[in-house]
Amino acid sequence: MNIQQRTAKTLSKPGRSAPSDVARPPREEWSPAHEERLGVTYEHVGVGIIEIDQAGRVRRVNQKACELVGREADDMFGRSIFDETSPEDVVQDLAQFRRQIAGEIDRYTIEKRLARKDGSYLWAEVTSTSVRDPSGNFLYAVRVQHDIGLRKAAEQALARRSEEQAALFRFSERLQYATSPPQVYDAGLDAILAALACERASILLFDDSDVMRFVGWRGLSDGYRQAVEGHSPWGRDEANPRPVYFENVAASALPDTLKETVVREKIAAAAFIPILIGGRLAGKFMAYYDRPHHFTGPEIDVALTLARQLGFGIARLRAEEARCVAEERAQQLVSIVESSDDAIISKDLDGIIRTWNPGAERLFGYTATEAIGKPVTILFPPGREDEEPGILARIRRGERIHHYETVRRRKNGSLLDISLTVSPVRDSAGMIVGASKIARDITGRKESERKLRESERQLTELLAAIPAAIYTTDAQGKITYFNQAAVEFSGRTPTLGSDEWCVTWKLFMPDGTPLPHDQCPMAVALREGRAVRGVEAVAERPDGTRVPFIPFPTPLRDSSGNVTGAINMLVDISERRQAETQQRLLLDELNHRTKNNIQMLQALLFSAARTAHSDEARKVLNEASARIAAMAAAQRVLYGRSDASRVAAKEFLPAVCETIRQLLPADARIECGAARGVLSNDVAMPLALILNELLTNAVKHGVTDHARQSVRVSLTGQDGRLALCVEDDGEGFDLEAVRKTSSGIQLVLGLARQLHGTLHVTKNPSRACLDFPAAKI
Q1: Distance (Å, rounded) from C-alpha 563 to C-alpha 557?
Q2: Pick from 498, 571, 506, 496: nearest CA to 542
Q3: For 409-423, how does the pLDDT look when each residue is reduced to its tens digit (9 = 90+)?
Q4: What are the Polar residues biased-composition ranges (predicted)?
């Protein structure tokens, strides 16, 4: 009997028989009792048994096979075994089964995952054996299935442990050769992804502000990092931080805002693993999973091992960096000592020289070989040896001696002024074992101080010789110096360090208003840090006499620009005041005579206009009269002031406009607008004539309804230029068209050239503007 016949005989059972074309053993070899015994064995054997046809459909199945996949026998009949196989295993199993059908093989064994009714998969070892007829044709296959889930789990766990150990080993090896923080972070991220089998990872460390920030990451968006940066489940000084993990973020107790951010990043599970350096929390690393994940004890142990290695790697680099910095600083210190122009010396507590830099060689003339081992008193000139015991006593007490000025002796016996700074030197235990000394040559400074004192003496003599009153103050306004002229000017002797702001007894404004000393020009100069000019005041002496004067307070500054005090010169202007009074009298007389002459000229022109027989003559005479009136208005404003060389625009413009308006129709309206700037005498007269022409032209040609319309005038200034503008509601005129036909416009253009100005005419609105440079007064 061949193997196919024996197998068919063994596995057939009444009620679930094989197809009729299956060869059966001879009847004499079969008995009901034997068949029943085989059926019981088939049902209760400890392995799953399935019979399948050429299409892979289930024809027969025992109870154990049903238990393995969690289905009833009736539910399995007719189903393809390949539909119940994990997609990852179908290709290999199907290829082997096709070879079995073709007769290339009679048996094969494969490990595959079987789909259970509850959706889970079961690892099984399946042995598929062919059943053939006597001619060798394939009838069906008997598949024996063993549950190897425990073995697979053990194998996977072992493989996982091997992967973890390999990842830890690679991480340790890479840390040995890492020379920069990014290299440590990259190695750590690779190890986290491999050892913990997570999809994403990150490393965060505390910065100098104790904020936990990302230093390395894999697979995280910019928005996520910005949203969660700074978050930490532990306090900065927590003594024993433990890992924190969330196996299902969506169902966790995280704050809602944080949870939403994590879920939005499609992170389903996460672990927070603390990183310690020197026993103190330094940061954390994060492991992220795209699906809920159960964290086992061994897995957390691996994570903590990774964190320890990360901490060691970061600490090693930091220590190396600190060592390099310390070495660099030490080298810099050596370079500074070697290249310093100052003498830098160390000595023990017995005063014996132990180190001697090139600066000491240059300063004192001794080489290092000559000086080291000798007492420091070789530098002391006769009579100063007793300074050393006092210096050593202070050093033993831990005191530091700052800028102690003394005299020392060079090798050639010459003396030099030096400034000493002496500091205690301590050993590793903090015990004072000696002193370091920095000696600076101050001979040049001493000479400069001598020259400065001499210069100050000469300056004092110079200020005393100046006939004007001069005094100085400190930054707070206290009087620090005054010359004899200041005493004579004020009628008193000021008190140094007590009197403030001014040397005078009392102060007044030019109009007689009292002027408090803390508001005087000197106080303003110190308070605002600027020189004050163009101010007048009146000083009253203790005897009651008053002196008008002009002060010239000027702040004094140090090399850094800070105000250290001020100097003031008081110029007596009593004689100038008397001269101005005489000048005012002469100007008043001149103004009176000029005004009379202009009025007489206006009367003659007015009389001639009335008696003229020609309209053209009357027109010309009236225009001349108006121009004379405009000049008279300017003259009244200019010479009606104490300063006849200039006039404020706000006084000039209204006066001239009002004079011109009186010569225009009674219902003509002139709106005198803004007026800014200062006009010189040379500008005022031509400007008055220009204004007369422009206003007369605007009222005559630009106003059709005097009740509703007006002419607007303004005089404004900006960036060193002035603009006189006359605007009306008319249509305006073309300057080029009337340039040769209008005598008034010709006069305006001629006067504009005299003022170095330019006339601009526009329409809509109708405006004529004269732009000219402001006078430098």
Answers
A1: 4
A2: 506
A3: 999 999 999 998 999
A4: 1-10
pLDDT one-digit tens code per residue, 232-279: 999 988 989 999 999 999 988 888 888 899 999 999 999 999 999 988
Q: What's the confidence (pLDDT) of residue 4?
A: 41
Give the pLDDT of residue 263: 92
User: Taking Cα atoms as reference points, which of 566, 550, 535, 542 lies closest to residue 488?
Assistant: 542
Q: Which of 437, 347, 355, 353 is nearest to 400 (CA)?
A: 437
Domains in the chain, please, with CATH?
A: 37-150 (3.30.450.20), 178-321 (3.30.450.40), 340-434 (3.30.450.20), 466-578 (3.30.450.20), 612-773 (3.30.565.10)
- Name the β-bridge partners of 122: 114
Q: What is the Cα–Cα distance from 147 to 375, expressed in whole angstroms?
A: 94
Q: Measured at the alpha carbon of residue 446, what is the angle toward residues 440 and 451, in degrees to the nearest 5? A: 150
**Is the N-terminal amide bond of 14 cis, ω within 30° of 0?**
no
Q: Report yes or no: 268 and 249 within 8 Å, Cβ to Cβ.
A: yes
Give the residue among 449, 547, 558 at the shortest CA–CA distance from 504. Answer: 547
Note every long-range contact of 119-123, with CB atoms under 8 Å and residues 24 or more positions apart, other chains counting: 121/86, 122/68, 122/69, 122/147, 122/149, 123/147, 123/148, 123/149, 123/151, 123/152
Give the whole-angstrom CA distance, residue 698 versus residue 3: 133
Q: In what order do the strands lie in the sheet with 138-147?
A: 58-61, 48-52, 138-147, 121-132, 107-115
What secondary structure does DSSP assign to 208-276, as a single string?
Answer: TTS-EEEEEEES--HHHHHHHTT--SS-TT-SS---EEES-GGGS-S-HHHHHHHHHTT--EEEEEEEE
Residue 302 to residue 308: CA distance in whole angstroms: 10
Could you tell me the CA-to-CA distances from 514 to 467, 479, 539, 540, 548 in Å, in that order? 27, 21, 10, 10, 13
Tokens for 312, please give them. 């060691």
Query: Can you tell me which residue has the tokens 């939403």?
Result: 260
Q: How far apart are CA 392 and CA 376, in angstroms?
A: 11
Check residue 72 and report its DSSP letter: -
Measure the CA–CA gap between 100 and 115, rounded to whole angstroms.
23
The two structure tokens encoding residue 485: 């002229």
The H or E element that residue 679 is part of is strand 678-680
What is the pLDDT at residue 638? Answer: 57
pTM score: 0.41
By CB neighbour count within 10 A (0-12 exposed, 13-18 middle, 19+ buried), where does 675 fall? Answer: buried
| Amino acid, res. 333 | L
Instruction: Determine the Cα–Cα distance for residues 350 and 373; give it in Å rounded to an integer.
Output: 11
What is the reported pLDDT for 14? 36
Reading phi first (left if > 0) and then psi (alpha if -120 to 50, else beta), residue 41 is in alpha
Using left for φ > 0, alpha for ψ between -120 and 50, and beta otherwise, residue 555 falls in: beta
Which DSSP string do the residues of 160-177 spell out, in sequence order?
Answer: HHHHHHHHHHHHHHHHHH
H/E stretch holding 183 reads helix 181-196
How many degrees, rounded to 5, is the angle at CA 522 between CA 518 and CA 528? 85
Q: Could you give the angle at which helices 149-177 and 297-339 cross, rounded to 10 degrees?
A: 0
pLDDT score at 22? 42
**Separation of alpha carbons 175 and 152, rounded Å:** 34
Q: In Å, how far are 71, 679, 777 from 598, measured between CA atoms?
A: 132, 22, 28
Over residues 452-502, the pLDDT tens digits come to: 778 777 767 777 667 789 999 999 999 999 999 999 999 999 999 889 999
Place of tokens 């001794």: 366
Amino acid at 600: M
